[in-house]
Amino acid sequence: QTEAVFKVWAELTNRARLANWLPVFGRGSAFMDKQRYAAPKKKGKHAVEIGDHWHVGRNLTYRGWHMLSDADYWKTIVQESLALRPGDPGSMSLYTGSDHEHRKLAQHISNEVKKQKRDPKRGVSDVWVRKGDQHWLDALHYAFVGLRRLGWQPEV
Q: How far apart are the first and last CA of the chain?
């Protein structure tokens, strides 16, 4: 998957690249991720932007820039935002769509849930457990990260 994403990115025109179009990847405790997010402590040749649970870094394998996000953190933000009453600070409302579209979106968003896991050596930690497709949850989390990079701050 990563190779395909960077291939598309490499084929973008210079204009699109200059507009800061970047591949985005989440890192977290879920099934396929297994690679926890590690925030860089300072900017340097491998991290040119550092934000709130995200950073823009260099991918040495594909010789390109990418944005990495803390998937566990941002999926929590998405799910908590949807759980708030519409209009309340920090809430997220759904677009006008058919019942079928809303059911499908709700299914994707709820197909991954955060649970606590007890490890005798590390204590209690949060893990995300998947029970089906959750691509739209990933898409929402990437949208939140992109908005944050562009300076958006949710109302709290």
A: 36
